[in-house]
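User: Can you predict the 3D structure for this chain?
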Amino acid sequence: MTPPGRTSSLMTITCALETHVDSLRSADQTRTVDGVALPRNTLTSHAFTQDRIAVLELLAAQAAISLENTRLYGDLREREAKVRRLVDSNIIGIFIWDLEGRVIDANEAFLHMVGHSRDDLSSGRMRWTELTPNEWSDATEQS
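Assistant: Here is the predicted structure, written as structure tokens:
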């Protein structure tokens, strides 16, 4: 038990974790931290030395970063799934290209609009520079 007037090392670690999590939060303030283990030692006072407290604070910071990364990767997977559903829906033509002008991927709606087949795409023969109308070629080359 912590003597009156002293703060517990455990409280310091908990506050450190909460501070790191708060500093990593995005605009979505509804997120909470789950799965934090809090060590307790009520039998021995001063169980955590300053060196151990420093290590625990570092671990708390790393745990907070890990939890935030997990959330961010989950958000990324959700966004990628939404984009993939849009591409696969073929409501609009969508294509992806590289800096050399090669069309890397395209959905069926795009292939239909430009009159190419999936084989043309797979063979690497499709280039967005060749799909550009002649009157826009100069502007394309300048960009």
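DSSP finds six helices and two strands in the chain. Strands lie at 95-97, 103-106.
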